[in-house]
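Exercise 7b. Backbone tokens:
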């Protein structure tokens, strides 16, 4: 009786695909500007000017001025994330489900794509020229409606005014992200709800909104991070009169009077932690949303 001997399974050979070369710029960018830059900030935040280990920079984050800067930045980020999230969701709903004309949807998506990247000195100047103390909208209110909005309490160069400016690029970003999520709602879900006797409110309350909630919350986290890291628009609009983390950080790193690079790196470390929490939460919520929409 002959025995059959099986040959050992061949080990899979590693095959390098040239397709990976297309990702090389991404990995290089991530390595240089995320991994190495973050590592440099972490190391420098626990070193003094002589290169000795110290916790003084971290302890400096408890200073009243630093705490106020974080509080103000978080306040503005929350306001713009919530208001931009609600407004952007309503606009996205209108162009995807609301039945607006196709040309209007194209115009809104194009507008959102442009304005979501609009910021800095240009945006600050646009708002000063529009609703500043001598802006043309301010003049219209005064000459046509006899309303002097600045005497009524409005101030563009305040937390409220800066939040209004941030909304210009916050809610378009919400539109761009939520429009695909709304398009992912399957018609079978609505039909099944209607067959079971559910009205439109019940469909949104028990089916559509729970499915969209991870995307909605995740995008609001992204809006929070987007506003929290903004610096150029705030500085150009207010001249640094509003105490924000990004402005204080810039003063510590590049300033002449308040220069303290160690404290600046500690401020940046605190921002990295907050940004990491926001991005991590956004990633987890997006995965949850994708699982629902793929079913």
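Sequence design result:
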């Amino acid at each position: 009786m002959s025995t059959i001997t099986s040959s050992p399974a061949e080990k899979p050979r590693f095959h390098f695909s040239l397709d990976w070369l297309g990702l090389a710029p991404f990995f290089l960018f991530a390595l240089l500007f995320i991994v190495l830059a973050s590592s440099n900030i972490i190391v420098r935040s626990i070193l003094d000017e002589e290169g000795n280990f110290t916790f003084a920079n971290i302890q400096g984050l408890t200073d009243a001025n630093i705490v106020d800067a974080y509080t103000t930045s978080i306040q503005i980020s929350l306001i713009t994330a919530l208001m931009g999230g609600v407004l952007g969701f309503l606009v996205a709903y209108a162009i995807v489900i609301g039945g607006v004309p196709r040309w209007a949807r194209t115009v809104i998506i194009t507008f959102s794509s442009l304005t979501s990247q609009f910021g800095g000195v240009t945006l600050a100047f646009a708002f000063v020229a529009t609703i500043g103390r001598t802006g043309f909208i301010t003049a219209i209110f005064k000459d046509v409606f006899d309303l002097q909005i600045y005497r009524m309490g409005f101030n563009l160069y305040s937390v409220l005014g800066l939040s209004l400016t941030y909304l210009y690029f916050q809610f378009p970003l919400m539109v761009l992200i939520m429009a695909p999520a709304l398009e992912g709602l399957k018609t079978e879900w609505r039909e099944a709800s209607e067959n079971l006797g559910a009205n439109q409110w019940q469909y949104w309350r028990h089916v559509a909104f729970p499915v969209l909630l991870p995307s909605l919350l995740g995008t609001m986290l992204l809006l929070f991070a987007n506003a929290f890291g903004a610096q150029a628009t705030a500085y150009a609009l207010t001249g640094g009169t509003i105490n924000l983390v990004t402005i204080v950080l810039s003063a510590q790193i590049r300033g002449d009077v308040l220069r303290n690079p160690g404290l600046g790196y500690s401020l940046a470390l605190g921002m990295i932690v907050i940004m990491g929490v926001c991005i991590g939460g956004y990633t987890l919520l997006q995965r949850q949303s994708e699982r629902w929409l793929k079913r």
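Instructor comment: Residues 222 and 279 are 7 Å apart (CA to CA). Residues 53-293 form a domain with the MetI-like fold fold (CATH 1.10.3720.10).
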